[in-house]
Amino acid sequence: MTTQHKLIKRLIGSTALAVALTGSAALAEELRFTVWTGSDAHLSMLNGIADGFKETHPDVTVKFETIPFGDYVQKITLQLAGGNPPDLGWLLESSAPTFVDAGVLADVAGTLKGTDGYDFEDLSASAMGLWQDGDAVFGVPFSTSPFIVYYNKSLYDAAGLEHPDTLAAKGEWTWERLKQDAAALKDGDSGVWGFQSVDGQGYGSRVLHTLIPIIRSYGGVAWTDDACGLNSDEAVAAISLYHDMIFKDQSAVPPGEQGDFFTGNAALTVTQLSRVSKLKDAEFEWGIAPLPAGPAATASVIGQAAIVAFAQGKQKDLAADFLAYMTNAENVAVMAAFFPPARQSVLEGDAFLSSNAAVTPEQMKIVADGIANGAVAPGHVAYPQIDSAMRPKFDALWKAEAEVKATLDEVCAAVESHL
Amino acid sequence: MTQTAPRTKLTLRAREAIAGWLFVSPITIGFLIFFVGPLIAVVGYSLTEWNLLTRQSTFVGMDNYVDALSQNPDFWHVLKNSLVFAAGLVPLNMALALTLAIALSRPFRGVVIFRTIFFAPVVTAAVAWAIVWSFLLQGESGAVNQMLAVVGIDGPNWLRHPDWAMFAVIVTRVFKTVGLNMILYIAALQSIPRDYEEAARLEGASGWQVFRLITWPLLAPTTLVIMVITVVGSLKVFDHIYLMTGGGPENGTLVLAFYIYEQAFEFFNVGYAAALAVILFVLIVALTITQVILKQRSQPQ
């Protein structure tokens, strides 16, 4: 009888303890933060910022969840639709109009402007453009990253060619010059291509990021509010140059082939600063140069990504607090190592130029100049539809015998039905 | 006494019925929750215009169906692609499966090794299969084209050429799935008694006659099963297309299942996607019933 009593008491005791434990676990708050980077360097930097937040919010843990870039928007949307939204997340500029318009982003203006020492005015107005609607603020760009040229210095030196950044300083770095260099550096026997499109996805999800820098420097645009510009004379000339690189010179990595700059299999590529982390173990010398000039201008194109809080999140205030913490001047300076900031004070400071040990201050200056002169890559409320309508038409362009102008007329017809 | 007897009988029956229902309840409940429930829900969604991102849903009746069938030219293009894929895959798959099964149904030294080789793709992860093949099928540096170059053939850029991409996804899909059908055929072939063939041989029948008049008719039930699952599988194909071509080039391999995915998860048009899913469901059911009826009609001969 007594043993039974003891057993029952123990059972009650352990159950109570278990309840207490789960209860206290529920008290410790967790913020779920979705990102598309899987890079250790990026994630340890982000976790460092989350640890700093613990000083003022000891019970709050921030969990960064990596979703691959290609699936990112879709997975986030499903989580939102399924009633299981992340608290915070990264969002790319091309998704901004759609998400702001759908009302799924939390307005964080009150928190940002009410946080001591946040200095909202320090955020560059042009960078904030996509993320503001009147007084409402739906996100803060953590990365306002211009597209820049990466070149393989070892290959340039072996071929005795002048470096792109040297040429740029003399004002001789043009798309025509890049085309010549790519053709000269291509070496079929050793499997080295001259030029790789943005992240090697220039025939798929990154077709615009690959073409827009050329198009803008030739004086063209992707689209305006009511018209498609991709079949203008300027755009046709720009895209013809790239088409010739693929099929006439056979210097650019063609569709369906692999040739990665970061493993030394392409001499040149265009992409952003954050890809420096891929060059940590590179077995070749490399350099950075600004985007080449075209007949019309030296156009700098910025790819932007912001931190947003989701309107459906269960801990909106806490999420907004973390957003404010993450984008304060101190943390923006930390993130600047990979993600060029939208804060003018950080951008103009000398600390930014030496924020990444792998990048020289002179190289970082190229990035800073790109931000100062840059315009954000094209976006639209109906971007998913435009992208999907446009891509099958672009497919027809990636053939040797394709008529560039006629194909671009088709692309524009597809784009205009969604503008 | 006379009154209570039938009552107990009824109770016994009811008891048996209850026991019976209890025995089938796990699968029935599962079927209702995971199949009938979603199916009804999808039919319900298909009558709405529902944006996944804004979470706004309005009832629109049959608009989605009208839109798909009479207003959206994309739908017919996509349906045609699906049917071309099925028409290419099913005969190729079945012919190859039967040929392999005949070659590998009789025991010989190393037969297990050959069967394993042909069956291995079935258990290979679909993702790995598709990615490895997309490397092999690269334009110039792909292994397939380099082998063709040895014999003097200048191969196309398989997955990037509008005319060749469909062919390439069909053939690689056949290699992936043929092993299962081969095993089904081997099992069926081994269950045919040897006596029939021996008797026919004694009567002087040739190998072809034995196959046409004895083996093939006895394989009919298996052929029907294989045909049904292969047709259904080919109309539902998604992962293979998603990984190898993404529906391109120029929408040349955009099949119905992939189009549904695109509508629902890239454009967030859940209602329209649900209507397309219902159309696909009806199409598959109709094709399956047709096959069964056709087979039954040809049976008496």
Verbal overview:
The complex is a heterodimer of chains A (419) and B (301). With 419 residues, chain A is of the alpha/beta class. Chain A has two domains: 29-146 and 303-376, D-Maltodextrin-Binding Protein, domain 2, CATH 3.40.190.10; 148-302 and 380-416, D-Maltodextrin-Binding Protein, domain 2 (3-Layer(aba) Sandwich), CATH 3.40.190. Chain A is built from 18 helices and twelve strands. Chain A has helices spanning 2-27, 40-53, 72-81, 96-102, 109-114, 125-128, 153-159, 164-169, 175-185, 207-217, 233-247, 316-326, 329-335, 344-348, 350-353, 361-373, 383-395, 404-416, and strands spanning 29-35, 60-66, 88-92, 132-133, 136-137, 140-146, 148-152, 193-196, 266-271, 286-289, 300-309, 374-376. In chain A, strands 1, 2, 3, 6, 11 and 12 form a six-stranded mixed β-sheet that branches. In chain A, strands 8-9-7-10 form a four-stranded mixed β-sheet, with helices on both faces. A two-stranded antiparallel sheet of chain A has the order 4-5. In chain A, helix 2 links the parallel strand 1 and strand 2. In chain A, helix 10 (207-217) packs across helix 11 and helix 17 (383-395) packs antiparallel against helix 18. Chain B is an all-alpha fold and 301 residues long. Chain B has two domains: 4-45; 71-298, MetI-like fold. Chain B contains 13 helices and two strands; from the N terminus they run H-E-E-H-H-H-H-H-H-H-H-H-H-H-H. Chain B has helices at 4-45, 63-71, 73-105, 111-123, 126-136, 143-150, 162-190, 194-202, 207-218, 220-235, 239-244, 256-266, 270-298, and strands at residues 48-51, 56-59. In chain B, strand 1 and strand 2 form a beta hairpin. In chain B, helix 1 packs across helix 13 and helix 8 packs antiparallel against helix 9. Chain B is globular, with a radius of gyration of 25 Å. The termini of chain B are far apart. In chain B, 30% of the residues are buried. The model of chain B has no long low-confidence stretch (mean pLDDT 90). Chain A binds chain B through residues 74, 77-78, 80-81, 98-99, 102-104, 191, 203-204, 254-258, 384-385, 388, 391-393, 395-396, 398-399, and chain B through 51-55, 134-135, 137-142, 157-162, 246-251, 254, 262, 265-268.
